[in-house]
């Protein structure tokens, strides 16, 4: 087996390949391109094997900040396209080794002995390269030919570079692509995950797991994946990526569209214009369902800061249009531009951000789902706009997104480890976010913080939250319970409530955190822990109770939990919420968007009045939910004292007032009956629809903390923990065997608990 690659045979080109992960090259009869926003592609090799009929290509994943002093060990994100080279591209190829270009004829030659074959190696295509006048019979010279040496004199100087015959490019070509130099994501791909693909004229989707593609994991010191690709001349460019991409330019185009639609006249009903804007937003989520646009809403787009490379870090404001004349006053060191935004001091602030890790695109689609819901005419969205003001940052790390990085910015820094002491010269996006969050916190206006991420190892969609002792923990974990009630894809059992002293290893997702020189960098050499992450630093420095990191797996969850429709709103949910199976489903853009919608609906359930709350269908109430919430395990004290939410009523009277009927005729709290059956979702027939279980919040209402993680009672009911010296005794509930005491209406017939004394170690 031998490799044909000029980028490796010529030292200068090899260095250039790593320093330019966004480029365009021709290797054999194929064109590989990553010269676009978010593209990432390292050196490409054409490998010949006598035992293989297909062309074998290897593509290395370029690390973050490749070719710079800030190169590091994050090698997960790849995004490139390939197509069959056109004759004009083959003719303009300035190769480093001899190239034979086929003569263009009216019909392909059937006789294999008479056909002329193409031999070439990879090279970067310069934009101003000259086209060769006579392609027939011409031969490309080496890099030394430009100095006056003839091609005939150069051929014997490189005898090891023998010609490789390639098939006629006018016919269909079958190639095998191998992605090398990946971080260790074996668990993810063994669990059924596949790269994403975009065919010409079709949306992004996962590669199908078919025998024709032959997907396989390449074992070895460095992980790799392999699959087959078939193409023909004129069939267009096919793109592959680690996950469904969403580039910086995509985000800017969408924001400009929304700004033109909603910022011109907030009181306009926009039956056509607004629906068109939400249609484009749904296309970004790859969803053929979109709601109508809401009325009387406020949408503002401002510049929060500039990245180190000059890109925009946008701040969006979504709320109900207000006639207040008092304007928001920004910290003087922030370049927040016009248009100015009303202060609306009576409305607590909900802050949501995404893409601090540029390669974690599931968080971006969660953000788009939140934005689509807040701009819709859904009555729950209207209540959210009336009660809160939402401050949204779609991309905290635009440089990392544009450069095709996985977790770092242009300086190779993981921004989500520097919230404790951010610098405007190194951590531009999070420095501005921390600055403005601190300002709102001092004014007593900040209520909620949510940072959106993707996760490669733990399955499901779940929260990382802070651990507190006291009533604040009830409000803290109550949000997690409500998220599971509002989304079939959210998994409460996977949520973790940790402390800032808990160590978090940087390589928890399989990354080998080494620089290009194989020496540990300052960031990678030690465990910074969680104190530098956004949810811990904001919780500690801003004294915020509800500060979370939402993690969404790239692949799927452990199970799905069908949910009932919102009370009195049949057909209001997106298709990803209408499930009748408990089997895990592969995640896609629409699934992540539905999780985002569930998050903001849960905020309304927790801090506002939701006329269409799913708690109405579960025979429960917010008071009972907060009373039986997840608590930290005893014997382990938190370093942060109890913190309560700001700007909302917290007394039992305030909680009871949120569940009283309001003036709206469709308020479910006025007409709800505990025995009313749930109606089937939109489009589901009564014959085909499986019975929808009672709200899952009731089935998972009894949990305990195992370490810092919530574990279902069913999984630990028969667990016996042997007492150890210094252990703490705690009362734990186990299942009764008396069938007469089974709960009604539950398929699993969960028995009422009885008390048993066991020991839990520290």
Automatic annotation (TrEMBL):
**What is the top-level taxon of the source organism?**
Eukaryota
Ranges of Basic and acidic residues composition bias in the record: 127-137, 738-754
What PROSITE patterns does this protein's entry cite? PEPTIDASE_M14
Low complexity composition bias: residue spans: 673-691
Spell out the coiled coil positions from the record.
Answer: none
Q: Active-site residues?
A: 551 (proton donor/acceptor)
Residue intervals of the Peptidase M14 domain: 266-573
Name the cofactor(s): Zn(2+)
Q: Region Disordered: what ranges?
A: 126-165, 511-533, 673-692, 717-762
Pfam families listed in its UniProt record = Peptidase_M14
Which PANTHER family is this protein grouped with?
CYTOSOLIC CARBOXYPEPTIDASE, CYTOSOLIC CARBOXYPEPTIDASE-LIKE PROTEIN 5
Family in the record: Belongs to the peptidase M14 family.
What name has this protein been given in UniProt?
Peptidase M14 domain-containing protein
């Amino acid at each position: 087996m031998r490799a044909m690659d000029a980028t490796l045979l010529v030292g200068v080109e090899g260095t250039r390949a790593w320093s330019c992960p966004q480029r365009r090259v021709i290797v054999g009869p194929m064109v590989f391109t990553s010269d676009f926003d978010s593209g990432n592609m390292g050196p490409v090799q054409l490998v010949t094997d006598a035992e293989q009929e297909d062309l074998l290509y290897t593509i290395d994943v370029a690390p973050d900040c490749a070719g710079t002093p800030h190169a590091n060990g994050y090698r997960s994100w790849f995004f490139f396209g390939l197509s069959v080279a056109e004759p004009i591209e083959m003719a303009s190829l300035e190769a480093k080794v001899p190239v034979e270009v086929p003569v263009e004829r009216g019909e392909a030659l059937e006789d294999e002995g008479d056909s002329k074959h193409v031999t070439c190696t990879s090279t970067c295509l310069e934009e101003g390269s000259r086209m060769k006048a006579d392609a027939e019979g011409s031969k490309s010279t080496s890099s030394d030919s430009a100095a006056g040496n003839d091609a005939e004199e150069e051929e014997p100087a490189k005898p090891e570079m023998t010609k490789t015959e390639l098939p006629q490019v006018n016919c269909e070509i079958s190639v095998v692509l191998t992605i090398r130099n990946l971080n260790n994501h074996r668990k993810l791909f063994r669990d059924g995950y596949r790269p994403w693909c975009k065919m010409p004229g079709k949306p992004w989707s996962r590669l199908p797991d078919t025998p024709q593609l032959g997907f396989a994991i390449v074992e070895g010191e460095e992980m790799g994946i392999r699959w087959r690709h078939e193409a023909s001349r004129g069939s267009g460019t096919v793109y592959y990526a680690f996950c469904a991409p969403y580039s910086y330019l995509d985000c800017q185009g969408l924001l400009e569209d929304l700004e033109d639609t909603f910022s011109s006249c907030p009181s306009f009903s926009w039956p056509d214009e607004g629906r068109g804007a939400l249609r484009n937003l749904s296309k970004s989520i790859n969803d053929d369902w979109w709601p109508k646009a809401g009325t009387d809403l406020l949408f503002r787009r401002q510049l929060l800061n500039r990245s180190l490379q000059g890109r925009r870090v946008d701040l969006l404001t979504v709320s109900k249009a207000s006639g207040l004349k008092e304007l928001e006053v920004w910290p003087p060191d922030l370049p927040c531009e016009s248009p100015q935004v009303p202060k609306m001091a009576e409305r607590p602030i909900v802050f949501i951000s995404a893409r601090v890790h540029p390669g974690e695109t599931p968080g971006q689609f969660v953000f788009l789902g939140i934005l689509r819901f807040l701009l819709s005419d859904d009555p729950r969205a209207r209540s959210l706009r009336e009660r809160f003001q939402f401050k949204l940052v779609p991309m905290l790390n635009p440089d990392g997104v544009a450069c095709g990085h996985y977790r770092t910015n242009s300086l190779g820094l993981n921004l989500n480890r520097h919230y404790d002491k951010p610098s405007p010269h190194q951590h531009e996006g999070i420095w501005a976010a921390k600055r403005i969050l601190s300002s709102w916190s001092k004014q007593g206006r900040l209520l909620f913080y949510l940072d959106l991420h993707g996760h490669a190892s733990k399955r499901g969609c779940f929260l990382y939250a802070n651990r507190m002792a006291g009533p604040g923990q009830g409000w803290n974990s109550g949000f997690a319970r409500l998220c599971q009630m509002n989304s079939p894809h959210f998994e409460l059992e996977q949520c973790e409530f940790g402390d800032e002293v808990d160590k978090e290893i940087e390589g928890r997702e399989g990354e080998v955190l080494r620089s290009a020189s194989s020496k540990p960098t300052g960031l990678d050499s030690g465990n910074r822990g969680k104190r530098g992450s956004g949810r811990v630093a904001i919780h500690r420095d801003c004294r915020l109770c509800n500060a979370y990191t939402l993690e969404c797996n790239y692949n799927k969850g452990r199970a799905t939990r069908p949910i009932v429709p919102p009370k009195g709103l049949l057909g209001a949910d997106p298709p990803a919420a209408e499930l009748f199976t408990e089997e895990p489903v592969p995640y896609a853009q629409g699934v992540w968007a539905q999780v985002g919608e569930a998050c903001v609906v849960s905020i309304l359930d927790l801090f506002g009045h939701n006329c269409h709350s799913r708690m109405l269908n579960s025979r429960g109430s917010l008071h009972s939910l907060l009373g039986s919430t997840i608590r930290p395990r005893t014997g382990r004290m938190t370093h942060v004292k109890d913190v309560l939410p700001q700007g909302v009523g917290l007394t039992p009277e305030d909680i009871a007032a949120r569940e009283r009927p309001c003036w709206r005729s469709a308020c479910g709290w006025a007409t709800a009956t505990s025995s009313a059956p749930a109606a089937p979702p939109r489009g589901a027939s009564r014959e085909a629809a499986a019975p929808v279980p009672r709200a899952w919040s009731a089935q998972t209402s009894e949990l305990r903390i195992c370490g810092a993680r919530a574990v279902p009672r069913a999984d630990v009911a028969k667990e016996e923990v042997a007492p150890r010296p210094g252990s703490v005794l705690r009362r734990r509930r186990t299942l009764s065997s008396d069938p007469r005491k089974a709960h009604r209406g539950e398929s699993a017939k969960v028995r009422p608990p009885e008390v048993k004394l066991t020991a839990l170690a520290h």
